[in-house]
Amino acid sequence: MKNCYLGIDVGSVSTNVVLMDDNNNIMGKVYTKTQGKPIDAIQRGMKEIKTAIKEEIKVKGVGTTGSGRQLAAMIVGADVVKNEITAHGIAALNFVDGVRTILEIGGQDSKIILLKNNVISDFAMNTVCAAGTGSFLDRQASRLDIAIQDFGKMALLSKNPVRIAGRCAVFAESDMIHKQQLGHNQEDIIKGLCDALVRNFLNNLGKGKEIVGPIVFQGGVAANVGIKQSFEEALGQEVLVPPHHDVMGAIGCCLLAREHAAKGHLTEFKGFDIINSGYNVKGIECQDCANLCEVIEIVQDGQIMARWGDKCGKWNSLVKKKEKLA
Amino acid sequence: MKVTFPHMGNQYVGTKVLLEEVGLDVIVPVDCSKETLNIGTKYSPESICLPLKINIGNFVESINEGANTIVMIGSCGPCRFGYYSILQNEILKEMGHEDVEIILLDAPQGNFKGLLDSIYKLTKTKNPYKIINALVKATRVLYQIDDLEDLMYYKRPRQKNIGEADLYYDELHKKIRGVRGYREVSRLIKETKEKILRIEEDPGREVLRVGLIGEIYTILEPSVNVYIEKKLGEMGVEIEKSLRLSHWITEHLFLNPLNITMDSKIRKEAKPYLKTMIGGHARETIGYGIHYAKRGFDGLIQVYPFTCMPEIVAQSIMPQVEKEYDIPYLCLIVDEMTGEAGFNTRLEAFVDLLGKRKEMKVS
Ligand code: SF4
């Protein structure tokens, strides 16, 4: 029987599940699209992990992160629930001891995390602009009719990159179309886009921040060699991409769960059986006061498991009371 | 005549008392909700700052409950708040509420006459004693409610059962709507204070201290800052706000003419970074940031509405303050698109960071 830890990262675009053993080896990882149905994605991810692992395992701890962390925690029974920034920081530290800068670009979010003495000392997340994120790249790739996997490699072939306005997604897109109409070749346009995205990222998030090496680049977009190269050119330094760069949030959760278990805490994990349960999420609008809160209700096999979203705590505590009675 | 006014945090308690004490019928706008913002967003120019949108929502919701007169405060600063009342007047007209009267109470720049004139118009009495008496009572009630809020800042991170203090606090706000005049409101506040004082604390809690700085409306109105003070409190953070209403009134009504204000001290702090008044509260944002850093706070959080001009300037200066005073700083910008999940992530990560820093300093 092997001891291991489960990490789940539920983002708005993708949901990742990672299983890690006591020696920090990744035993299994799943990267699946959330598609607006986080519960399905969690169940799908867990199921895939389960079928991929042939040995006897014992889950000693579970951690969740991402914008759906609370939901995931509720469903699987998590021991640690952490924000993405801390989770990503922990994971990068495990990859490169002494890392000073983490560049992270995911589907909807991008962030920069600075560390000092192995502790997070500063961070920034994109606020209003989407020009520095993965879905923006996806869209441009499909506009150019190029598979996103080939996108980065094509950028490397460019000899004369065109300059594309990258201040915001709207400008970048229209400028790119303009450059296309001028007849620039695809490699040069793609390279220009990579440069623009990197410029946008550094201007928006890196402003006023000292970017010191070692630098780690992670998140789904880190697979893109074009972006990696643009970062290296812009920063004048080597940029390291971890082997499991796309699931670093989930890896961070595994590490946090392991730490938690090492302190002697027993896990709350509900077991892999939850993949066979039927879940329902209902949104109800409470009419009791002017807040008209949209209360989310999670029902497992006909039984209400959790409610949240209320400002006053009325619905929330309803469940808590029941728990106490049971 | 049924009078209403826009919300701004606890300001409604003072305004309600003021208007009721001069004998008016008051309709307190319902608490700001998503619906309030929806109405406001629908009828306001898209790129205007958030407070105006909420105000419009408040007006409409109150008009629907029978209000026919609106009291607004004005401003003289160069930021857009200066023309809020004019714009709001136009918007309401366009919506077909021509019959609703807007009375503007301009912040008195050292002279009371303008203010009193507007109040005469509103109350249709010329009895200055009645008015001054009401003003004094309103100010007093504002101090009481701000005082209670301070207690909340203290209790939230320390209470044994998370959420208990807010139960009493929310109940108070519900009850205030049901009573009339200074005596009743004041009694309710006192009662609540006693209850909250008695709440059991957990002595083992590590409490962090954070200074909340930024634009006044977003700092004071919990529905637009996504209940940041409650969230921080429950994460174990005690806060202090750079701007509060009772304080603002004392500054502007009583101390300013004498030139002995706290504000001037704060402005001095800000001076090396920002020399002149640029409207809004940019100087206060920077000045208080420094003030809190000097007092050994663990971190600073700035909150402001998207496109707020003075705060953008302050934001660009804050990293320098952060560096020179070695205090972590986080900036949060809110508008009707604000997603709560992202907001929570940033807050949580920031609090994590502050906690780790403190741990390292101690050990
Ligand atoms: S859940 Fe509570 S705060 Fe929300 S609408 Fe219902 S009564 Fe109001």
User: Gyration radius of chain B, to the nearest Å?
Assistant: 20 Å
Query: What form of chain B results from the Cα inertia axes?
Result: globular
Largest sheet report of chain B: 4 strands, parallel
> Whole-number radius of gyration of chain A?
22 Å
Number of domains of chain A: 3
Question: Based on CA inertia axes, which overall geometry of chain A fits?
Answer: globular
Q: Which consecutive residue ranges of chain A, at least 5 long each, have pLDDT under 50?
A: 320-326
SSE order of chain B, one letter for each helix or strand: EHEHHEHEHHHHEHHEHHHEHEH
Explain what the structure shows.
The complex is a heterodimer of chains A (326) and B (363). Chain A is an alpha/beta fold. Chain A folds into three domains: 2-87 and 249-276, ATPase, nucleotide binding domain (Nucleotidyltransferase, domain 5), CATH 3.30.420.40; 97-241, Nucleotidyltransferase, domain 5; 279-318, no CATH class. Chain A is 38% helix and 25% strand. Chain A has ten helices and 13 strands. In chain A, helix 3 (84-95) packs across helix 9 (248-262), helix 5 crosses helix 7 and helix 7 packs across helix 8. Chain A is globular, with a radius of gyration of 22 Å. Chain A starts with a strand and ends with a helix. Chain B folds into two domains: 2-134, Rossmann fold; 205-363, 3-Layer(aba) Sandwich (Rossmann fold), CATH 3.40.50.11900. Chain B contains 15 helices and eight strands. In chain B, the strands form two sheets. In chain B, strands 2-1-3-4 form a four-stranded parallel β-sheet, sandwiched between helices. In chain B, strands 6-5-7-8 form a four-stranded parallel β-sheet, with helices on both faces. The radius of gyration of chain B is 20 Å and the shape is globular. Chain B starts with a strand and ends with a helix. The structure holds iron/sulfur cluster (SF4).
